[in-house]
Amino acid sequence: MSRLRRPVLMSLVALLVLIPLPAHAQELPFRDPDLPRAVRIDDLVGRLTADEKVSLLHQYQPAIPRLGIGAFKTGTEALHGVAWLGESTVFPQALGLANTWNPDLVKQIGAVTGREARGFHAKDPAYNGLNLWAPVVNLLRDPRWGRNEEGYSEDPYLTGAISTAYGHGIQGDHPDYLQAAPTLKHYLAYNVEDNRTTVDSIVPPRIMKDYDEAAFKPAISANAATGVMASYNLVNGRPTHVMHDLDDVVRSWTDEDLMIVGDAAGASNLTGSQRYYATKAEGNAAAVRAGLDSFTEDNQNSAPTTTAIKSALAQGLITMADVEGAVRNVLSIRFRLGEFDPAGRNPYASITPDVIDAPEHRELARKAAAEQMVLLRNDNKTLPLSTADTKKVAVVGQLADTLYEDWYSGTMPYRVTPVKGLAERAAVTASEGVDRIRLKNLATGNYVTASAAEAGAALTATEATPTDASGLDVFDWGEGTVTLRAAANGKTLSLGDGRALVNNAVQPNGWFVQQQFKLLAQTDGSYVLEYAGNEVTQSWFGRNRYVVVGADGKLTVGAETPEGAAKFGREVVHSGVESAVAAAKGADAAVVVVGSMPFINGREDDDRKTTALPAGQRAVIDAVRKANPRTIVVLESSYPYSGDWDTADLPAILWTTHAGQETGRALADVLFGDTNPSGKLTQTWYRSDADLPDILQYDISKSGHTYQYFQGKPLYPFGYGLSYTSFRYDRLQVDRTTVDAAGQVKARVDVTNTGDRAGSDVVQLFSHQKKSRAEQPVKQLRAFERVELGPGETKTVEFTVPASDLSFWDVTREKRVVETAPHDLIVGSLTRAINVRGEKIPPRDLRKTTQAQNFDDYSGVTLVDTTKELGTAVAATAPGQWVAFEDVNLGRSSRSLSVRVANPDAPTTVEVRLGGPTGRLVGTVAVPTTADKYSWTSVSAPLRDAAGRQDVYLVFTGKARIDNLTVEGS
Length: 970
Prior knowledge:
Blueprint: H1 13-16, H2 37-47, H3 50-55, E1 60-61, E2 72-77, H4 94-99, H5 103-123, E3 131-133, H6 156-171, E4 181-187, E5 200-201, H7 205-221, E6 227-230, E7 234-235, E8 238-239, H8 245-248, E9 259-261, H9 280-290, H10 303-315, H11 320-336, H12 359-371, E10 374-378, E11 392-396, H13 418-423, E12 427-431, E13 435-441, E14 447-449, E15 460-463, E16 472-476, E17 482-486, E18 492-495, E19 501-505, E20 517-521, E21 527-531, E22 546-549, E23 555-559, E24 568-574, H14 576-584, E25 589-595, H15 615-627, E26 631-636, E27 652-656, H16 663-671, H17 700-703, H18 706-709, E28 727-734, E29 738-740, E30 744-753, E31 759-769, E32 780-789, E33 794-802, E34 808-810, E35 815-817, E36 821-827, E37 830-837, E38 850-851, E39 857-859, E40 862-865, E41 872-876, E42 882-889, E43 894-902, E44 908-914, E45 920-927, E46 937-942, E47 949-956, E48 960-969
Parallel strand pairs: 2-3, 3-4, 4-6, 5-7, 6-9, 11-12, 11-25, 25-26, 26-27, 29-37
Antiparallel strand pairs: 1-2, 7-8, 10-27, 13-16, 13-24, 14-15, 16-17, 18-19, 20-21, 22-23, 28-30, 30-33, 31-32, 31-36, 34-35, 36-37, 38-48, 39-42, 40-41, 41-48, 42-47, 43-46, 43-48, 44-45, 44-47
């Protein structure tokens, strides 16, 4: 979702006015709650004019006074609490919620979020909508994704379990009414921010079915979500906003009505950056035909959307029946929210704003913040700290005394930082571990000085003698990017009017994050200051990136090159490392809190380039460790870290996401042992960025990534997390060693707490198919359960695994299959073998027309849209690329191969080879030039000596597209 949905000051008085119910409308059938919902919807749709129907397809649906219908808005952000509407309970980031592996807890958090959404709705029914855009279920296949913190896991099963819990919590438990209406984001295969509206996610069919779709299906199938949002990207050449999967696939997962919504300006991209359609009418019509019900466009201005829809109707691109179908889906959600029912019928309608930030919500936020923390290391039982021998604690690091909100965070009503939380347990010495510097304009000898006013002012270099107001604190966020905080008023430097540097930001924030800078050392020993905010801001001031000092002494961004910038001397007032060391010396324990800044180290519209810990923060860790042998590192970040910071002599490492208002108390609860850590990783922590593929590689089986396919040794594996106690698994048993495709197997394992304190463990059951026609994951999560055990206590955990869960997408027949094969069931280090009696996948029969995308292997090719409406084809972009169809039964003899092709480029050929891309040549198909990439024609070529069971390779000698192929036998 883009910045376009960030709240703006509204002066639309009409939206704030409750529509009185006309007397004649009180008895209309659509207001009778005892009638079936479908009957009520039909009645209401039948009373709407054509213009009124069209108006309901925009995010801001206007009031219809003659029927007593008020305004309605889709889309309130609610990833980890209600966002953007004012102070609310802020829970840990979504990634942190998944770290708990606790669906019951996540459901409680969803329930609070839905309840507070109702509270905000009571304040402003027209603007504070009850359609919540959460949760995000895009799989976290690559930790460099800028929105990593918004998702749950790299695993679809875990993502499905957590999203189902959160969605059920939001909706509430009433059989008829919704507390609020959750919408899953973002369909589909969306994990890249750079050029995200034009990036094309290439996803082969099996990965699409078994991985990406598998994350969305559970919540929809469990009726734990009321809709889906389309994503910004293209998938296999087609923008998601016009993918018919929205209608044909997503809606097939449930019998309940779903409201499919567009992302902000997503439909406009069809004629904008994507250039997929020539006119807005064509684009909007295609989106409606594909299943889109609600357009999120142009903020409150619905006119461009409704005008385009009316134009599409006039041109015959869609029918009024198409519009009514979308309207029914929209209205169904509104009926379920109780909007049209008499007072007293809907129990959620009585919720008032008093619920927001309620005391019990604060307690839940503290519990969640503690439970999502993951203990990565604990040598020699460094943790938990004892109050008896830990009287003085040093709390140091860039994140020691601050809490950061992310783009989709609510506004914290209060902030308990690590320093504040630990100060409730022990005497604290604190240091942020950052350098305080002064900048001296070398041209004049004057020092840069900041205003002490609360609102800040433009920085100037007019003082010949430095003062306290000359101090700038340097926060290192990696890759040379820093933020500068003025000692004068504690505010962070940002860009202000006239491109001036102003000390006015509480924290880095905003869509363009204008608080980012680089201090660049020059060969002559001087420094220049470069603005390093989001690249999009270049349009605001041309190519200017560097800071100059004007004749009036004011600092502005005004030079294109370092040579044209002002040169500064950098004087260190005090060293951050030395300050941290001074705080750590003599303390009973040192807690180093380092990590990411959610607005800088990757976020929406900005992928991170590295997962390494910033060098400046690493330097503080190393120095403090030398100064205090009892050093605990607390990593606070939105994503996994890689690198060599996990050195052999670090006694303890704890990871937390940005965990909201109660972070400090939760951290103290864990460090002092009031809470025994039980969080588990939901992503692989790789040792190096070099372990990661191209971020555009969505085929995880081909690239060998996520825990399912990774063959290397991770820094920390998926599912990892320590406890202050220890657990032993014994006696993994199965109730049967052979199961048929319609059956199920029960696995039992004894779990014993072998330590001296109570604790919770997450028992994880994985499977591995040991023999298959298709490449199988190294292992795959099938079930999990949290278990709480006292010291010495043993419990038996039982899992039921339907054989159907072991199915996968068979590209040879385009269906799910439970294959006859041996499997291992794995819990910890224990393994039990079972045999599954399903079916054997027969040899491929290419005599049946086969979609080219259903290949078994490939090299270099990409997937493209067959037409703008439907279909996926294979495209070669260079000579030597190929696709393979393995174990093909060519029979006694195959005479010819027919291929449906499109080729807007020069004539070329496709070679038919057996056994490999350089194997025996048995035929050559001539591919002519066609009118364009959507002009398809069938061509064929004879095959020579093609018989028996063979691996058939189609090798391209130039650019071409193949939709399908058919072999004709003798």
